[in-house]
Specification:
alpha+beta; Alpha-Beta Plaits; Molybdopterin biosynthesis moea protein, domain 2; five-stranded antiparallel sheet; three-stranded antiparallel sheet; flat
C-alpha cells in the first residue's frame, strides 16, 4: 500500500471537519485570480465563510469522507475540476452567492483571454504625449492622431468582439489606456445545504426576486377571488363594494327607485326627456328654454358620450369609496 504523507491526511481531516461542522458547503472557482487577490478576498469573507485551498484530489477525498455523515454531499463532485476551492459557511447559499459576487473586481486582460464583451476604445484624448506609442496604437487598430500636443483617438474603435480571444499586443496596451475588461472574483459553481445541491443558475437570481414573486401571486390570487366572488378576509370588502356598484347600476338600468339612486334616476329621466323633446320639436316654453340654454353652452372636448353617461361615470368613481356598512345598507334597500 502506497505511503500517504501525514500532512495530506491532516489536510483532508481539516476539510472534512469544515464540511461536517458547517451547514453549507460550496465549490468555488478560483481560475485566473492572482494569489494576492485571493488572499484579500478570503480575508474579506472571514466573518461569514471560510475558503479553503487544497489539491483537487484531497478535496475530493474529503467530500467522500464527509458524505458519510452528510448524504448528498457527494453531488458536489459533479462540478469539481480545474482551479477550485472549498467554501464552508453557516449562511444560506443564496446569500453566500451574493457575497462572493461582491468580491469581483475589474482586472487587466491576458493574451488569449476571451473578451467578456466588446472591447471598445472610446473617442477622445489619451494620457500619452507625442511619441512612438502612436504607432503602437495605430498598429492594433486604434485611429490615433496628434492634436494640441496630445495623442487622441479620432473615433470609437472596437478592438475585440465579445467572446473572441484577446491578442497579446491589445492585452498589453489596454491597461495603459485605463481599460480593464476582465472581471475576476470567486465564482460559486454549486452549493450544498440540507441534502440539496444548488447549481449556479439557481443561485444567480436578483435580490428580492422571490419576494416579488410572492407579492405578485398574492395580488393575482386576490384578483381571482374577487372575479369569481369567493369570500375571504382579503376579498370581502372589494366584493361588497363590487356588489354595491353592480346593484346600483342594475337598479338604474331597470328604473327601480331607491334612496341611493333616486337623484340619478331623475337626472337620467330629465336627460332623456330633453333628448326626446329635441328630436320631436317640442313647443313647450320651459323645455325649449332649457334646450336653448344647453345649446348655448360650449361643446365638450369629446361629444361622443351623452350627459347621462358622464353622470354614470361620476357615479362609478364615487362608489369606489363605498364602505362595507354603506354597501350592506344599499343592498338592503334594493332587495330587502
Amino acid at each position: 500500500m502506497a505511503h500517504v504523507a501525514a500532512w495530506k491526511k491532516d489536510r483532508v481531516k481539516e476539510l472534512v471537519t469544515a464540511m461536517t461542522e458547517n451547514p453549507v458547503v460550496a465549490i468555488v472557482d478560483v481560475h485566473g485570480i492572482p494569489g494576492q487577490q485571493i488572499q484579500s478576498m478570503r480575508a474579506g469573507l472571514r466573518a461569514h465563510a471560510t475558503i479553503r485551498m487544497a489539491k483537487n484530489n484531497l478535496i475530493l477525498l474529503a467530500i467522500d469522507e464527509a458524505a458519510k455523515k452528510k448524504p448528498g454531499l457527494e453531488g458536489l463532485k459533479e462540478f469539481f475540476g480545474g482551479q477550485c476551492a472549498m467554501g464552508a459557511t453557516d449562511i444560506n447559499p443564496f446569500r453566500l452567492f451574493r457575497q462572493l459576487e461582491a468580491t469581483k473586481t475589474p482586472a487587466p486582460a491576458k493574451a488569449g483571454d476571451k473578451a467578456p464583451h466588446d472591447i471598445v476604445v472610446p473617442k477622445g484624448p489619451t494620457p500619452f504625449g507625442p511619441g512612438p506609442i502612436i504607432g503602437e496604437l495605430q498598429k492594433i487598430g486604434i485611429p490615433a492622431a496628434i492634436e494640441a500636443g496630445k495623442i487622441v483617438v479620432r473615433k470609437d474603435a472596437t478592438l475585440v468582439k465579445s467572446g473572441d480571444p484577446i491578442p497579446a499586443p491589445v492585452a498589453a496596451m489596454l491597461p495603459k489606456l485605463g481599460i480593464l475588461p476582465m472581471i475576476v472574483g470567486l465564482d460559486i459553481r454549486s452549493a450544498f445545504e440540507s441534502g440539496t445541491v444548488y447549481r449556479r443558475n439557481v443561485l444567480d437570481i436578483p435580490e428580492g426576486y422571490y419576494l416579488s414573486m410572492f407579492a405578485t401571486a398574492a395580488f393575482n390570487a386576490r384578483a381571482l377571488g374577487v372575479a369569481i366572488a369567493f369570500p375571504t378576509k382579503e376579498t370581502i370588502v372589494p366584493l361588497m363594494a363590487k356588489a354595491y356598484r353592480e346593484a346600483l347600476s342594475l337598479s338604474i338600468s331597470a328604473a327601480i327607485p331607491t334612496r341611493e339612486n333616486i337623484e340619478m334616476l331623475l337626472a337620467k329621466a330629465d336627460s332623456q326627456m330633453l333628448a326626446l323633446a329635441a328630436a320631436t320639436g317640442s313647443t313647450d316654453e320651459r323645455v325649449t328654454a332649457r334646450l336653448k340654454a344647453a345649446s348655448a353652452k360650449p361643446a365638450p372636448a369629446k361629444a361622443d358620450k351623452a350627459p347621462a353617461a358622464k353622470k354614470e361615470e361620476k357615479i362609478e368613481e364615487k362608489d369606489e369609496k363605498v364602505t362595507e356598512e354603506e354597501a350592506a345598507a344599499g343592498l338592503s334597500a334594493l332587495f330587502g
